[in-house]
Amino acid sequence: MKDVKALVVTGFGINCEVEMQAAFRIAGAKADIVHLNDIFVGAVKLADFDILSFPGGFSFGDDLGSGKVLANKMKYKKMPDGRLFYDELKSFINAGKFIIGICNGFQFLVKMGLLPNTAGSFEQEVTLTSNDSYQYEDRWVYCKVNPQSSSPFLTGIDVIALPVRHGEGKLIINDKITGKMIIELGLNCLSYCDEEGNITPQYPLNPNGSDLNCAGLTDSTGRVFGMMPHPEAFLAFYNHPDWTRKKLEDPNHIETGEGLKIFANIVNFVKKRELK
User: Fold this and answer.
1) How far apart are alpha carbons 129 and 61 in whole angstroms?
2) Which of 16, 17, 19, 103 is catalytic?
3) Per the residue annotation, which of 193, 232, 240, 258 is the catalytic one?
4) 12: exposed, middle or buried (C-beta count within 10 Å: 0-12, 13-18, 19+)?
5) In sequence order, which residues have a C-beta less than 8 Å from that of residue 171 and are 6 or more positions away?
6) CB of 269 within 8 A of CB of 30?
7) Of the candidates 34, 73, 109, 168, which lies 20 to 30 Å from 52 by C-alpha distance?
8) How far is it, in rounded angstroms, from Cα 20 to Cα 93?
9) Do residues 163 and 230 touch, judged by C-beta distance below 8 A?
10) How far apart are CA 276 and CA 269, in angstroms?
11) In 10 A of CB 116, how many CB atoms?
């Protein structure tokens, strides 16, 4: 069986690429960090990979709104063969492959129109903007998986603890029709909640004030997935700020972090699909 191959994009202010690469490698994939310019000039081809990942960071300093400049660059960049990079992304999705964007990467996906893409038109339908606190939020949160979600990234997960690190993580849905479609299709795949899994708009459990308490979205296929919290920052149990107490309470506590499950899910899903 061939290796599952993950492409981890970097450049222009992305800064979580090494953690993302580590997450995929620990999960059993072959993961390459590639500068976006190498894809633009055709030195690396999306078609050679199974999973495309956009890590977190501060692309172009977030000077014109988080992710907007890089989203436009990706949307309108012309490749050597004359096709737009955006067309390459659409072809990648239509080939049944997978995309994950985390934090700044989630912002790219939203502002490129890849999420939630309820109309199938690849036009921007929602946005991510300044937190209600107007502060950069660096804290741990709990997220509840929507049982309606069919995304293979989230298989077997109910409530997950993860860190958030963002200043513009508030999802805004201006269009009532879009909001209705997101709910009906179960695209609001992750919601901020308390430790018991009760979804809540209350700060700081919801760190940004997102509509629908949204911490993550998928498209209707479940294969394009974006989220604000950082699963790649919780690959080992010892990443958790409360690990010492938890270890005392349960000396046999597993030593992998909860965030690794998201990467293991998608890598294992691709492996099983290849066997069919």
Assistant:
1) 15
2) 103
3) 232
4) middle
5) 110, 126, 127, 128, 208, 210, 211, 212, 214, 217
6) no
7) 168
8) 20
9) yes
10) 11
11) 27
Enclosing domain of residue 126: 5-275
Rounded to the nearest 5°, which phi and psi values hold at 61? 70, 10
Give the three-class secondary structure for 140.
strand
Could you give the 3-state DSSP secondary structure of residue 171? strand
**Residues 12-23: what's their mean pLDDT?**
96
Using alpha carbons only, give the angle 12, 16, 20 rounded to the nearest 5 degrees. 125
Can you give the pLDDT at residue 1? 65
Q: What angle do CA 181, 231, 262 make, to 5 degrees?
A: 65
- Beta strand pairing call for 170-172 and 159-166: unpaired
How many separate domains does the chain show?
Answer: 1
Asked about 184 being catalytic, the answer comes back as no
User: For residue 98, what is the domain's CATH number?
Assistant: 3.40.50.880
Q: Which of 125, 166, 168, 230 is catalytic?
A: 230
The two three-digit tokens of residue 148, written as one number: 């309606």
**pLDDT recorded at residue 276:** 65
Beta bridge pairs of residue 10: 35
Q: Does the pLDDT of residue 27 top 80, yes or no?
A: yes
Residue 253 known to be catalytic: no
Active site residue 232: yes
- Helix axis angle for 17-26 and 260-275, nearest 10°, is 50
